[in-house]
Amino acid sequence: MKSPVVFTDWDGTVTLQDSNDYMTDHLGFGEVERKRIGKMILDEKLSFRDGFNMMLKSITDKGYSMEYCIETLLKNIKLDPGFRPFLEWCKAHNVPLYVISSGMRPIINALLKTLVGDDAADYVNILANDVEYDSVDHSKWHIVYRDETPFGHDKSRSIKKILAEYHDVKPIAFYCGDGVSDLSASSTCDLLFARSGKDLVTFCDRHHIPYREFYSFVNITDDVNAVSHGVKTIEDCLVK
């Protein structure tokens, strides 16, 4: 078996709904404005970071604490049904699994532990933006980005840093995503999985970036397993 490593986005990729979109739609300025901003990001008229700041500000301006946001999300966000079996496959084959997210660590941690359990969640390495709380009023918070880039978290930097730790044998690097924030990661991995019907597919088609379309992590498990065991090549998987 060849040595694979898997990187995945969280919101809308591992989960069926994007938690940040859900918060914006239900706690912030609503779906119409959120989609308007999303289109500007997709059309490259607005950076992901600036658009995301607008969405989060619409939530914090209404006084919603991070604790309340997490409680709301735990009641409404569902996991891709194929993710838990994929995680178990990774554990069984000692395949490193990283969540590389433009979302916020407290939210991802809470959802991951609730949806897959503490033991399974402990296997997953999370690299995401953080949250800083007001020293006087802990209910007030703001996002703390990992870097200064227009993405807020340039995922390619995180992935390159991890891959640089492999000195002897370079692993086969897989990345799973669904949105514009995943674009920087596409150039750092051997095979990009893009969720069907989402912005990442649109952008890849628009810019002729090769990818493998997926509907569930069941598809990803099959392909990662097949490529790792030499049954398929990367080229076999790509959209032509």
TrEMBL record:
Domain of life: Eukaryota
InterPro entries assigned to the protein according to its UniProt record, in alphabetical order: HAD-like_hydrolase_phosphatase, HAD-like_sf, HAD_hydro_PyrdxlP_Pase-like, HAD_sf
A Pfam family it matches: HAD
Keywords: Hydrolase
Keyword Hydrolase on entry: yes
A GO molecular-function descriptor: phosphatase activity
Protein name: Phosphatase
Species this chain originates from: Eeniella nana (Yeast)
Organism placement in taxonomy: Eukaryota, Fungi, Dikarya, Ascomycota, Saccharomycotina
